[in-house]
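Example record

The entry below shows one chain as it appears in the dataset: sequence first, then C-alpha cells.
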Amino acid sequence: MTGIAATFARELSVALKSADAPTNPVTDDVSAWLERFRTALDGVGDAQDDSGAPVKLPAGPAEWLRIARDELDGLPALVSAIHAAASGGRWYQVYAVDEDSTEVSDNPMRDLASGMYAAQMIGPRGLIKSTELLAGLFLLRPRLHYPLHQHQATEIYFGASGTMHVQQGLGRVERALGPGQVSLTPSNRLHALTIGSSPVLLLYTWMGELGGRNWWWHQSDEGVWQRDAWERRPNAAWAKTVTEVLPPEHTKIEEGIDVGRGLQ
C-alpha cells in the first residue's frame, strides 16, 4: 500500500498537469517547469512513509486548517490525498523566532511565525526524506502579508483552498491565485503573498538549492531599497547575517520582471 507522502506526490503531479498560472508573466515558461516538477514528483514512486508519529497544530491554526479542509473541492483523489497529508503530517512553524536573540525586535519573521505552518511530505523533515525535492502543505492565517523576499530554490504553489494574491517583482500588481491554480516562482524571483479574510491552504514543492539565504527586501523613507539575508540556525531559529543596499540597476531588474528572472 502506497504511503501518505507518495500518494500526495502522485496526486499533486496529476493536478499540475492541467493547472493554469494566472499570477505569472506570459514570458515565464511555466509549462516546462511544471513538467520538471512532475517528473521529480513521479520519481517518488511507491516509497513508504517513515514510522514517526504525526505532529498536530496548536488550537488556533488547527481551526484555520479545519476551515480550509471544509472548503476543499476538486478531484476526489487529490482531496483525499490532502486530507491524509493534513492528518498524518508533522506540522511546524515555517519561521521559528529565537526569543533570546538581541535581534528579535527587528526580525520580520516574528510577526509571521504564528501565522505560517507547514507539513512536509517530502524533504529533510518529510515522511519521505530527500535533499533534492521539497513538497507538502502550507497553511497561512487570514490577513497575513508575507513581504517581498527571494530565495535560490524554484518554487511552486498550488491552490487547495482559499484565495491569496501574489506579487512577482517590484513592477507587477498582485494577482489572485485560487483553488486549482498554480504559481511558479523562478530562482531568485522577488515575490510577496497576501491573504484575505479566509485561511489559505497551499500545496508547495521546491527544487534547486533548498537551503541557503532567504533575502527580505525593504525600502527606506528616502526610497532606497535594501535587502537583509536571513539564515536558519541549528535550533531552527533565523538570524540576520547580511544587509545590502541595492543599486538602481538591480531594482530595475525586478521592476521589469516580464523580461528577467530576478536578482542573482
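Notes for this example: The domain at 4-259 is CATH 2.60.120.10 (Jelly Rolls). The chain has one domain: 4-259.
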